[in-house]
Amino acid sequence: MKNVDVPLWDKGDDTDSFTKGGVLGSSLKQSPLGKSPLVKKLYKQILGREPSSREMAYYKYTLAKKEDITKRLLESEEHKKILEKAQKYPELEETNSKLKSKVLKLESKIKDNEEEFKQLQSLLKEKNATIKELRRTKEVPPYLDGAVLEEDGVHYSVSKAPLKEVVKKEENFWDRLRYLIMGE
């Protein structure tokens, strides 16, 4: 049977790893109030926390000395876990620093993209306004009504007449020979 020798009020409470009754036994000879500050101080120094009421009661009423309490706390699983976490701390600190740097870079990139988007929107509005103004002032483009087109000082005219088909005659031997000699 489980917890047969444990009082009813203490059954099922497994919040700490202390054995019921302890090795040192209980004693009311020493004043419990005198140990309270010592126990609190040791817990704070070794485990970084305040002792639970159950832990406090256990150490207040035992004959355990400061060295015994210290040794027991240093050998506890809780202290071993604290040491493991402390060993991982430098690596976690470095990873955290790298991740913070990456976040700053990404935030900067987002701001740059937002600014670029605003500028592109502005250019798009300006382009649309220019097109609208050109359409208003020039209802028909000049090249559609047969007018003259200018490009780099060369004038082109657009004709509405259909293009004549260019008939290419078949070359004979003499045409090829003349081309080879004269280059025509």
How would you portray this structure in words?
This protein has 184 residues and is mainly alpha-helical. It is built from five helices and two strands. Helix 1 (32-46) runs parallel beside helix 3 (66-74). The longest helix has 61 residues, at 77-137. The chain is elongated, with a radius of gyration of 48 Å.
Can you give keywords for this protein?
about 55% helix, mainly alpha, two-stranded antiparallel ribbon, single chain, about 180 residues, 5 helices
Derived from helix and strand composition plus strand pairing, the structural class reads mainly alpha
Q: Please give the largest β-sheet.
A: 2 strands, antiparallel
Give, in order, the helices and strands. Answer: HHHHEEH
Beta-strand content: under 5%
Q: Based on CA inertia axes, which overall geometry fits?
A: elongated
What is the helix tally?
5
End-to-end Cα distance, whole Å, is: 120 Å
Number of strands: 2
Helix content: 55-70%
* Low-confidence runs of at least 5 consecutive residues: 16-30
* Average pLDDT reading: 75
Strand order of the largest sheet: 1-2
Radius of gyration over all CA atoms, rounded:
48 Å
Summarize the structure.
This protein is mainly alpha-helical and 184 residues long. Helices cover 56% and strands 4% of the residues. It has a two-stranded antiparallel sheet with strand order 1-2.
